[in-house]
Amino acid sequence: MVIVARESQHRPISSWPKAHQPREKLRLQGANSLSDAELLAIFLRAGVKGKSAVSLAQDLLTQFQGIQGLVNANTEDICKCFGMGPSKWAQIQAAYELVRRCLQESLCAGAVFSSLLQVREFLQAKIGRLPHEVFLCLYLDSSNRLIECQELFRGSIDRTAIYPREIIKESLARNASSLIVVHNHPGGNPLPSPQDELITKDLQEALSWVDIELLDHCIVAGHGFFSFSDAGLLNRL
User: Model-level pTM greater than 0.70?
Assistant: First the structure.
């Protein structure tokens, strides 16, 4: 396999061998064949003087320590980078939002528990990057299909007030058969606190009185994920 020399990556992409140009490579070999920088270059569309779009993309990924850091960056951070501006920041955010909506659409179209990884990716995309704590309810029907994903509570950086009565009311209003509750830890540690365990126990018990099953309580952090169900904690609480 022929590799484009590192020094040649700074030249305009139009001067590269056809098979190595990101759009052509995607067409011929599929999206999986592209590096993160090549995929990002397609969204950036053009480089700057002395840098191809791929070289510019690689600089951004290095500066922001990967894709997650890049999509979390605000307009001011992006505009400080050579060759970047509000329009390119908007392109990156739009691409990220399309992925998030695609994941949510997929969840609505099929049984949630047929793809745990898909659920995790959706939750990471939805709340993993938030600087404040939120509490979500995923209401499911009898076939484990998503009825609605609702943000029910919002708190400070380290505390959210959870009210089981409100959760039950919202679940009954949607005729939900089961429920997944989710909250994020902005501090980055996804492991449950004693308070997390207590609210899970209280909620599980309260839902049982109205014949609604608590399928899971998930905790999302920027680079971590915890599932009470996967850890075998639901039946032990």
Answer: no
